[in-house]
Amino acid sequence: MATVELTFSALPAHVRTARLVATAIARRTGVEESLLDEVRLAVGEACSRAVEAHRLHCPGEPIRIELRDDSGRFEVIVTDVAPSDDLEQEFQAVTSEPSGMLPDPFASGFGIAVIAGLADDVEVYPGPKGMRIRMSWPAAANGLAPA
Q: Where are the alpha helices (DSSP H) in 36-146?
């Protein structure tokens, strides 16, 4: 299992870098080309959410991303340390939506709903000291074959 870790400051410009790195590693891991846009969008959404939370609550703290290939899956974990009581409410707003209904686009949980629609498997771990979002997609067991 190979793991790449990336930390970046809470600046919107760094979200683009995180998307590019995630897409490159997903491609190298063997994620199908047709899923790469979904990887890019989901990682961008998770990182944008973390940047906004950090800018409001702890602008000096870095955001952490782990990217790994694990037994036929490409996994991305975005972790923020923004202390907020709103995180639990954000998670509850998304998980309690009635089936077939979209949340209010201006609600804070909308980004998580988007991520859930893009990634093959999503787990959200909210807490008083931040949030961890784990996303994964199917990948070739051994990554791409050499050219």
A: 36-57, 86-95, 110-118
At the fourth CATH level, the homologous superfamily of domain 3-138 is Histidine kinase-like ATPase, C-terminal domain (3.30.565.10)
Q: What is the pLDDT of residue 85?
A: 55
pTM score of the predicted model: 0.80
Task: Collapse the DSSP code of 15 into the 3-class scheme (helix H, G, I; strand E, B; otherwise coil) and give the result.
Answer: helix
**Domain chopping of the chain, boundaries:** 3-138
What residues does 126 pair with on adjacent strands?
131
Token reading at 61: 């703290």
Whether the per-residue pLDDT at 34 is higher than 60: the answer is: yes
* Residue appearing with tokens 């609550």: 57
Task: For residue 11, give every residue at least 6 positions away whose Cβ sits within 8 Å of its Cβ, in sequence order, or none.
Answer: 51
Crossing angle of helices 36-57/110-118, nearest 10°?
160
